[in-house]
Amino acid sequence: MIRQTLFTLVALAILATGGIILSSFADNAAEIGKCGYYADSFQGRPTASGEKYNKDALTCSHKTLAFGTKIRVTRLDNKKTVVVRVNDRGPFIEGYIVDVSSAAAKELDIIKIGSTRVKVEVVESAESSRVTDAQAEAEALASNTTTNTQTSNNQSNTAVAKPITYSQTTAVNTSPKGVANTTTTQNTEKVAPSSNLFKVDIKPSEKKGFGIQVTSLSDANNVLPIINELQAKYPGKVLVNVVRDEFNNPTYKVFVGPFVDKKSADAAKKTIAQKYKKTMVVDLSGI
């Protein structure tokens, strides 16, 4: 049974944890659905794999594929295609199966339209990708060693390539059936310690009127930056719908609203969609 809660926020700090059990995915399987892309505001933010998002790299998010898996994303309407590497989790909006980086979005030519229907195919598993990357690195180092040897006959340079590794959450559920295992492993680079203070005013909101859904996130750490941006433009109009599944795993849906009728929400959506491409109007009484 899925539980949903709707909150209004003046400034928000939602702190919640939830284990995610990743399912396996057949290498030869294909998916059909919508593809979106990351806004530039995500540049430099950590992804679920521990890497920082780089808008110029050919990467993507996927709900279940192992980090490091390479997939081919092909537009159904014009067959434009790009190969990207999975390093993040998502998208968590109904109908969407993949979000790609800005660089990949340019390859697919979806920057202006925001999203399109695509086919997703696995072209290289995570393990094979690591081996291939390691071999490429070894060949580059070997080439560099040869050049240095020719330049200086009395010196020899040798190097051992280390495979590229990803921070991969491995979920082995040893708990009783129906109970989620929330143990995860994540490697992140060290950063300078920081401390921030936020004013928080959280209160339940009535489920009535219409809201503009801006995004849907599974990681609470990514919620506050979006709320902060929206609150500056729409003070007192930011809502968060917290949805928990049967294992108590949370999903955070961020809205601007409420609006008294759909016509008002549709009018406001035109402005919001200029920055947030995957917005949609939702009847709040139905969530």
Structure classification = alpha+beta
In spatial order, strands of the major sheet run: 8-1-10-11-9-12
Measured distance between first and last alpha carbons: 14 Å
Low-confidence stretches: 9-27, 145-149, 151-188
Cα-atom radius of gyration = 22 Å
Oligomer: single chain
Helical content class: 10-25%
**Total beta strands:** 12
Task: Give the tags.
287 residues; alpha+beta; Barwin-like endoglucanases; 2 domains; six-stranded antiparallel β-sheet; six-stranded mixed barrel; 19% helix; 27% strand
Quick description:
With 287 residues, the protein is α+β, with helices and mostly antiparallel strands. 19% of the residues lie in helices and 27% in strands.
What does this structure look like?
The protein is α+β, with helices and mostly antiparallel strands and 287 residues long. It has 2 domains: 1-20 and 182-287, no CATH class; 23-168, Barwin-like endoglucanases (Beta Barrel), CATH 2.40.40. It is 19% helix and 27% strand. The protein is built from 4 helices and 12 strands, in the order ββββββαβαββαββαβ. It has helices spanning 102-108, 126-151, 223-233, 262-272; strands at 3-9, 30-37, 59-61, 70-75, 81-88, 96-100, 116-124, 202-204, 210-217, 238-244, 250-259, 280-283. The strands form 2 sheets. Strands 8-1-10-11-9-12 form a 6-stranded antiparallel beta sheet. It starts with a strand and ends with a strand. 27% of the residues are buried. The model is unreliable at 9-27, 145-149 and 151-188 (pLDDT under 50).
